[in-house]
Amino acid sequence: MQDDQQKWLQERHLLAFGALNLFIAIAAGAFGAHGLKSQLSSEMLAIWQTAVQYQMLHGLALFALASLSQPWPARTIRRSAIAMLLGILLFSGSLYALALSGIRILGAITPIGGLAFLFAWANLFWIALTTKST
Known about the structure:
mainly alpha; elongated
């Protein structure tokens, strides 16, 4: 089982997930700007744009994590990567769903994704201060 965990979220996986999330964010941004502009209120378009921005930022962060996977222990980097992926899914995903559906209760999921983002960044902060690079 340990070997399976070590194979999960290697550098190439982080690059792949980063690229996929950037692809989706760019497509969602274009869709929001062109396809949804006449369909959604300005408030819902702003919510959509927030989802795109956070997804794009954290997609780029996955690339940064891939570059850190060599000098720092993979387990610590993996923890932040998983939290970022979870944050993208819950934060951006709930905002996309809220903007499209108008169902306000979906906004209750968003802070959970935000907490996942905060954990990812706090974990990286802690890693940077306490771990010597190899």
